[in-house]
Amino acid sequence: MADPVAAASTPLAQEGKALSRAVLLRAYEQSHDAILITDRDNLIVAANGAFCQLSGYSHDELIGKDPRILASQDLAAELHANMWNSLTTEDFWEGEVWNKHKNGESYTRWLKIAVLRNADGQIENYVANFSDMEASKEFADQLAYLAYHDPLTNLPNRLAFESQLAQALRGCERDNRQLALMLIDLDNFKNINDTLGHHVGDELLQKVALRLRESVRSSDLVARIGGDEFVIVLPEIESPLTAARVANKVQHNMADSYRISDHVLYATPSIGISLFPIDGGDASTLLRNADTAMYHAKDAGRNNHQFYTARMNEAAGERLHLENELRQAISAISPSSSEFSLHFQPQVQTASGRVLGLEALLRWNNPTFGLVSPMRFIAIAEETGLIQPLGDWVIWETCRQIRQMKQHGIEGIRIAINISAQQLRHENLLLLVRGALACYDLQPEDIELEVTESTAMQNPETTLSILDQLSAMGVMLAIDDFGTGYSSLAYLKHLPIQRLKLDRSFVKDIETDANDAAICTATIALGHSLGLELVAEGVETEAQRAFLARLGCDMLQGYLYSKPMPFEETIAYLKAHRAAQP
Prior knowledge:
Strand 11, helix 12 (283-299) and strand 12 form a beta-alpha-beta unit. The chain starts with a helix and ends with a helix. The protein contains 24 helices and 21 strands. It has three domains: 4-139, Beta-Lactamase, CATH 3.30.450; 149-308, 2-Layer Sandwich (Alpha-Beta Plaits); 347-580, Alpha-Beta Barrel (TIM Barrel), CATH 3.20.20. The longest helix is centred in the middle third of the chain and has 22 residues, at 310-331. The chain has 582 residues and is an alpha/beta fold.
């Protein structure tokens, strides 16, 4: 048997192959692909076992023959010319060929031919590789599938979405039909991904993809275009009401919880909808307008859908401007100058009427926008990650102003500071609190940290660890907006908290709404049974105060006592209040 390695030894050496002759021979013989080697005159000098099995010829029967004896029919003149032209100019050719088995049966294979040259550039050998057409087709199909599908969810990816949307738009334009594009963003997905890990986030995305697919017809397109963003294309709708019905179905299907490992998670959708041809005549315009509508859905409270309107573009531009101003304001914060300030609202002991605490509330006075509502800029800060530096500044500034209050003779007042979910996850929170207290010579008892109910429920293990360390320092901890999130009482009782703050939404109609009255009654009883102090927010009338007092609520906060005040007014209020006390 001829040595195929020797037949092509010089080119292999030139390629720098470090494999031994034995290894090359083994690879050649054990290859599943049929391999045939010819000399410079295109006469067969070697064939591996796979080729002999494929052709039916023995090795000895092949040696010295022209490979054309294998052809089931002569190659077309054009194909033959193209093959040899490619081999001459590029040293390579591939294509489909029909060969004939020794018994006369024909078969098709995908043929690749490579030219091997010596050090002088002269042709030494031709190496032909015959692979199974079905395997090649299957591999090509797999590559095509991967090119157009998201590997995590198996949904069409952005490339497929753009192609199919363009095709659908051409059909709608031709047939004078309407089309709806829905952009879906998962609410709070980043928090889940950051706190529980990407493996949990990935599994959640897979489950979301299944629910989205179940929400629409087989003819509708569902795609994942990146991160936690999905799109649904409804290629034929009767009216915008059709899109609204589908959006409602999506919200309904995604309302139930997802159980992943030991976690029970929620991933509600914010949905923006744009319509063809009303909101745009091309794919990029429709997607951009749906994105604008989606942000409007988030601003409207999340877990809802919004249709695009021209006014939203103005709102989106204004929001971007506001975000830029917020970034600049945060970057320009200094001890002597800042667009931000703190206002303080008193917390009054129900039984005695004494002011025992204050809540620090952030305010922003921007040269362009004037006084900006916290409801507006805090949401932007949370979405953009700016809440981290802004929240850190609030801690430092609160401690600085507590020191100033003490210098004015105000003692025994604890000030509550709101902590965001991002701050609670940040490893520097403990060091920050210790540093701010030490810098202004304060005691841990001088401050109280408030976390919202939903924040406390995220990543329970990490949250519990951080809160335990803060509590061990002597810092009072409170759950804010209690009753508005998703509580686990079994988890709640393990948190080292001393206070529950009853949300103002329950206090507002406590005199007229039996449900709100029942919620307040139950919450106060629950808190006391757990040994916690209850603080009611949003107290505005004497009747509300009297009702809460009868329920045994410990502390009250609201406009009945005072609106939030800047520092100087707060000092004057506290001094006047204490002077009036017996």
